[in-house]
Design goal:
Elements (H helix, E strand, L loop, with lengths): L20 H9 L4 E6 L7 H9 L10 H9 L9 E3 L1 E6 L5 E5 L1 E4 L10 H9 L7 E4 L12 E2 L2 H17 L4 E5 L3 H9 L3 E11 L6 H5 L4 H16 L2 E7 L5 H17 L8 H10 L4 E8 L2 E11 L7 E9 L6 H17 L3 E6 L10 E11 L2 H27 L8
Parallel strand pairs: 6-8, 13-14
Antiparallel strand pairs: 1-3, 2-5, 3-4, 4-7, 5-6, 8-15, 9-14, 9-15, 10-11, 11-12, 12-13
Helix pairs in contact: 3-10, 8-11, 9-10
């Protein structure tokens, strides 16, 4: 069950720490005038302008494309009714009329689908008789992928956008503002606006120019290499074969199969899926060049599937993002093959530089994934809670750094002399 919206409209004083004075002076010295827009749907901004802005960023992802964000709204996955009310922020250059900056902002009345967990904060508010919802969240719904969140033509526009988000939170009837999975540089910029930084851990696989899968395996410790081969052999000996279907070649039957597998995963965890078949069909039509389906079959009958998103990049080589998987029948080690090993082979064949396997999962290290620090930024209106959370985040950051150091000491690769 998801929380209801009974906390909407509750007033909460906004007396958070002010933007530092030197930052205020810097903003005043920037003479460009911007017209702010607060949009109730991504459909209200021109798709070509939005995507042109995405393409200019240092760390763009397919999830910031207009096609992806508009599909979430158009198919009723991220709407007021599901607790993700779009309030996209835009800054238009008054002199040129061009879109200078933008951010995907949502009004939330729960904390589902975010992957930066603040349930303890919400509980603390409730125990003290204060409403935590609604809150503002700048993020891609249901997508724990780090990348640009403050789309901007230059640093000046990005600073102005960051200041606009904080000012909007201060002037709104919300408890807090959260920017989830921004780049490290954006987290720095948001900290300059008085927001509190938070860190987390994900596990990413890096392509060291591998020629083939066995080339990658040869870099692992013997035990890890042996275990992976054993897992792959179990799936192969069970008679399972695989098809990798690019988005351009996916049929409606493929999307219906994947949706069935996706929903089965949520059913097994006694939860409700965030996405629906219309969403998968929509992105299958609007951005097929970014999509890959891995389909597992037994005697010609599909029994499992995973969906991955990828983006090529001339500078870095590109990234593959693991998103969802599901199986209609149980086969030992099928998950590892469908969601990890087949995608890793795809990365190597396509010379993609990084495979981001999704949120959490220390078990990924045994399969060649390494710990990577992620970022978020937070502003709380209530001064006492802001101070308490700041102390908590300082302590948490120390624990995160210590844990990352410990994990890196036990990476799965052969130790070099």
């Amino acid at each position: 069950m998801r929380p209801d919206d009974s906390t909407k409209g509750t007033t909460l004083a906004c007396t958070q720490r002010a933007v530092p004075r030197n930052t205020v002076r810097q903003l005043k010295q920037e003479r460009i005038d911007y017209r702010m827009g607060l949009l109730g749907s991504p459909a209200e901004v021109d798709a070509r302008e939005w995507n042109a802005l995405v393409a200019r960023q240092d760390q763009p992802t397919p999830f910031l494309r207009h096609e992806f964000l508009s599909a979430l709204t158009a198919t009723q996955c991220a709407t007021e009714d599901t607790g993700w009310g779009p309030r996209f922020v835009t800054l238009v250059d008054e002199n040129t009329g061009a879109l200078a900056a933008a951010a995907p902002l949502y009004v939330k009345n729960h904390s589902y689908g975010e992957y930066v967990f603040d349930w303890a904060w919400a509980d603390a508010y409730q125990r003290n008789g204060l409403p935590y919802y609604p809150k503002l969240v700048c993020a891609v719904p249901f997508t724990p992928v780090q990348g640009t969140r403050l789309l901007a033509v230059d640093d000046a526009a990005r600073r102005r956008l960051a200041a606009t988000l904080v000012a909007l939170a201060e002037q709104s009837d919300v408890s807090s503002l959260h920017v989830l999975f921004p780049t490290e540089q954006e987290a720095d910029a948001l900290a300059q606006m008085g927001m509190m930084r938070r860190q987390g851990i994900q596990f990413h696989w890096l392509n060291d120019g591998y020629r083939h899968f066995d080339d990658f395996l040869s870099t692992l410790e013997q035990k890890k290499r042996k275990n992976i081969r054993a897992e792959r052999r179990k799936v192969r000996d069970a008679g399972i074969t695989f098809r990798r279907v690019r988005g351009e070649d996916a049929t409606d039957a493929d999307w219906r199969l994947f949706n069935k597998c996706y929903r089965q995963t949520y059913r097994e965890h006694f939860s409700s899926p965030y996405l629906n078949l219309d969403f998968f069909r929509t992105i299958g039509r609007s951005m097929p060049e970014n999509l890959l389906l891995v389909i597992a079959e037994y005697e010609g009958r599909p029994i499992a599937s995973s969906l991955l998103v990828y983006q090529r990049d001339a500078k870095t080589g590109g990234t593959l993002y693991g998103r969802y998987w599901g199986a209609l029948e149980h086969v030992p080690c099928l998950h590892f093959e469908t969601a990890y090993y087949q995608p890793l082979e795809f990365c190597i064949e396509e010379k993609l530089a990084v495979f981001e396997g999704g949120a959490q999962g220390e078990h990924k290290m045994a399969r060649g994934f390494l710990p990577t620090v992620t970022h978020s930024a937070h502003w709380l209106a209530h001064p006492a809670f802001a101070d308490a959370v700041a102390r908590f985040l300082d302590n948490e950051a120390n624990l995160i750094h210590a844990h990352v150091d410990e994990l890196r000491e036990h990476d799965p690769f052969k130790k070099r002399a």
